[in-house]
Amino acid sequence: MWLKIRGYVAGVGAFLVCPCHLPLTLPLILALTAGTAVGGWLANNTILIYIAAAAFFIGGLAMAGKWLLADTSKTCTIQPKEMNHEQI
């Protein structure tokens, strides 16, 4: 169950940082950080932002695929040891 939840979170995260959204979101981020050191750095390094977004997008899709397509039927479940009355 947790693998599926992690897979969905990774998929949504990959969708949010998709480089195709940057023409819409990057100006908004630049406007929100205008006048700050972060805003200046972002404005001067837009190519690096696109490269990082592409890397996060590909990594997020890979992790989402790994976790959503994982075969959980082969996992080992730990069974509790049965205690006999002599051990108690």
Put simply, the count of helices is 4
Shape: elongated
Structural class: mainly alpha
Order of helices and strands: HHHH
Helical proportion? 55-70%
How much strand? under 5%
- Oligomer description: single chain
Cα end-to-end separation: 35 Å
Radius of gyration: 22 Å
Largest sheet: none
In total, how many domains does the architecture comprise?
1
Average pLDDT rating: 86
Number of strands: 0
Could you write a compact summary of the structure shown?
By secondary structure, the protein is mainly alpha-helical.
What does this structure look like?
By secondary structure, the chain is mainly alpha-helical. The protein has one domain (7-69). It is 65% helix and 0% strand. The chain contains four helices and no strands. Helix 1 runs antiparallel to helix 4 and helix 2 runs antiparallel to helix 3. The longest helix is centred in the middle third of the chain and has 23 residues, at 46-68. The protein is elongated and about 75 Å long. The mean pLDDT is 86.
Topology:
Blueprint: H1 2-16, H2 22-32, H3 37-44, H4 46-68
Output the keywords.
88 residues, single chain, 4 helices, mainly alpha, 0% strand
